[in-house]
């Protein structure tokens, strides 16, 4: 996830929306084929055998009828890359040539440095290229990779490099293109505290480029090939690079993770390469640091389950125990791959072979259950005084499980092991009848359901939006049905936004309608479903006919309302209201029973 300091003005956001090409974004992840004016292919968001992913280039929307995802080009980029909205805006602006706005006023001057502008990428790219060249010239680095059995294909794919021994190799190599200030700003160089000549941050180290989920280079990590006490060193923390927000290897692993909904989380760069070499493509690393909530949240964008592949030593055990509540808190299922004492994923691959590593991942145990067993020893009945302490430890563990149903199930198992009534633990865990009933209640159906009436409303809106967006002739404002003709509240909001713009004299474009319906949650996704779910072939009904169907349905509904209102007015003795309703009833009846060819404009109110 990139750190973006852009000022996201409405003008800039709209410029990006106008510039992005949803087909180009989708085509980078899946093969698309023409299907009329749309494109179709296998969904890049989930694994499928039959194409159900549709892209409309004219309207800039996508919809997958397999997994249900839909929306505009920006949402597609965010789903595929893992970028948040600000990072997506910056990434797409650079990709599609939209000028970046200046940083907010509070950051100008002090932040007019390479990390906040395009020069930062140029510096990092130049350094990456230089590191790769040095790797080809270094017998030491090549011999190390051979000893670790890292395939050349992975060296190339992950862009590995080498920083030779010496204090100013990189500084000197890039001196003709970039200033020392540029190198300091992106964390590639340092300066002694007391002042003096700048020096290379990376010396005699194997270099690992670190990118965000969308592949943007943000910094580097280096593993010593000498006798340096610090085994691993990363780029200094900058405005661009925060290792606690990044997962090494995610740009390569995200597709496999999304397809399997499972990620293998390891500790180090070489562990990622070793696991991938063994065929476990969906592998990422937390770069040796304690797992952060932001990293867990980033994983949850792609995975439902995480297998912890930390080292099999005491430090690895401690790291797993610290990571567990963080991952559970993001709604992830957590399993633990067990390695022999002193082994890590890469060493297991080299000693026992790739099948051994794959088997360890496939056979990973439910880590919550394993922790219950660890915190509640099997011989606890021999130590009654320890039961309370174990019970508190279990409650602390299970409180991190957000799903009340899962918490309920784990609580029952823990209670059996503790030898106490399950109700006692459920009470401590806040799992009662009400919370379980709420969790088990099925999701409410869409308002109006998938009925013929709702489909008519959907088709009417689809045709109105398409007709307007293409610049074709629309019915006069007076010919539009009233808002009440749309029973589905979401579709009514879209229609209200459309009608308001049209009555005010503009030719509503899809973007404007979405902006007018901004109070509708997930408006882009609903618009994608609205516009792509229906067939727009030559056999589609004319717009006038669809509007007439809605008008007549509403008239019948209004007639029933009038009957009820007349009965109420009669009971109250309100003769004036009764006369008004009788006149309206006569007009409604006359319109309903008029031959179709003689019907007045459909929106006459």
Given the structure, what is the number of helices?
26
Rg is: 31 Å
Oligomeric state as shown: single chain
Low-pLDDT regions: 106-118, 442-450, 596-605
Per DSSP E runs of 2 or more residues, the count of β-strands stands at: 16
Structural class: alpha+beta
Largest sheet, if any?
5 strands, antiparallel
Q: What amount of the residues lies in strands? A: 5-15%
- Which architecture name of the largest domain does CATH use? Orthogonal Bundle
Work out the count of structural domains. Answer: 5
The first-to-last residue Cα distance is 53 Å
- Order of strands, main sheet, comes to 1-2-3-4-5
CATH superfamily of the largest domain: DNAb Helicase, Chain A
User: Which CATH first-tier class of the largest domain would you pick?
Assistant: Mainly Alpha
Mean pLDDT: 81
CATH topological fold name of the largest domain: DNAb Helicase, Chain A
Overall body shape: globular
Helix content: 40-55%
């Amino acid at each position: 996830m990139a750190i973006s300091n852009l000022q996201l003005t409405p003008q800039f956001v709209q410029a990006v929306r106008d510039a992005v090409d949803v087909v180009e974004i989708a085509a980078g992840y899946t093969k698309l084929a023409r299907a009329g004016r749309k494109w179709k292919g296998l969904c890049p968001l989930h694994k499928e055998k039959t194409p159900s992913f549709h892209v409309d280039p004219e309207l800039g929307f996508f919809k997958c009828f397999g997994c249900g995802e839909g929306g505009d080009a920006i949402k597609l980029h965010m789903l595929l890359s893992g970028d948040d909205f600000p990072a997506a805006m910056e990434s797409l602006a650079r990709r599609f040539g939209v000028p970046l706005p200046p940083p907010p006023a509070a950051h100008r001057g002090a932040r007019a440095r390479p990390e906040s502008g395009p020069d930062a990428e140029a510096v990092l790219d130049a350094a990456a290229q230089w590191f790769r060249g040095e790797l080809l010239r270094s017998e030491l680095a090549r011999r190390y990779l051979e000893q670790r059995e890292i395939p050349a294909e992975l060296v190339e794919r992950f862009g590995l490099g080498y920083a030779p021994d010496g204090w100013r190799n990189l500084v000197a190599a890039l001196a003709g293109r970039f200033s020392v200030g540029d190198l300091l700003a992106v964390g590639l160089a340092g300066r002694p505290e007391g002042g003096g000549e700048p020096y290379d941050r990376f010396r005699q180290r194997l270099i690992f480029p670190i990118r965000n989920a969308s592949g943007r280079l943000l910094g580097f990590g280096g593993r010593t090939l000498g006798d340096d006490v610090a085994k691993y060193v990363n780029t200094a923390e900058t405005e661009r690079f925060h290792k606690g927000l990044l997962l090494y290897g995610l740009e390569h692993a995200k597709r496999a993770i999304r397809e399997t909904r499972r990620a293998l989380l390891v500790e180090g760069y070489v562990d990622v390469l070793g696991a991938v070499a063994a065929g476990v493509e969906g592998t990422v690393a937390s770069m040796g640091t304690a797992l952060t909530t932001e990293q867990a949240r980033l994983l949850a964008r792609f995975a439902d389950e995480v297998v912890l592949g930390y080292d099999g030593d005491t430090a690895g055990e401690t790291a797993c125990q610290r990571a567990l509540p963080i991952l559970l808190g993001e709604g992830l299922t957590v399993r633990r791959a067990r390695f022999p004492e002193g082994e890590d994923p890469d060493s297991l691959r080299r000693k026992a072979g790739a099948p051994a590593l794959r088997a360890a991942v496939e056979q990973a145990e439910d880590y919550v259950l394993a922790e219950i067993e660890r915190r509640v020893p099997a011989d606890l009945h021999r130590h009654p005084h320890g039961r309370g302490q174990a019970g508190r430890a279990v409650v602390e563990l299970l409180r991190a499980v957000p799903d009340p149903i899962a918490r309920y199930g784990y609580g029952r198992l823990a209670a059996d092991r503790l030898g106490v009534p399950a109700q006692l633990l459920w009470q401590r865990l806040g799992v009662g009848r009400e919370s379980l009933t709420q969790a088990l209640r099925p999701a409410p159906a869409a308002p109006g359901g998938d009925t013929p009436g709702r489909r008519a409303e959907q088709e009417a809106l689809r045709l109105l939006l398409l007709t307007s967006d293409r610049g074709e002739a629309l019915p006069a404002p007076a010919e539009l049905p009233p808002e009440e003709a749309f029973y589905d509240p979401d579709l009514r909001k879209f229609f209200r936004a459309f009608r308001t713009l049209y009555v005010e004299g503009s030719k509503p474009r899809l973007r404007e309608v979405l902006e007018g319906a901004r109070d509708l949650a997930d408006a882009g996704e609903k618009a994608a479903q609205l516009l792509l779910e229906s067939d727009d072939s030559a056999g589609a009904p004319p717009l006038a006919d669809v509007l007439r169907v809605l008008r007549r349905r509403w008239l019948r509904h209004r007639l029933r309302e009038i009957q009820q209102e007349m009965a109420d007015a009669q009971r109250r003795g309100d003769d004036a209201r009764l006369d008004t309703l009788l006149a309206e009833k006569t007009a409604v009846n006359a319109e309903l029973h008029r031959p179709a060819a003689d019907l007045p404009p459909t929106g006459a109110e």
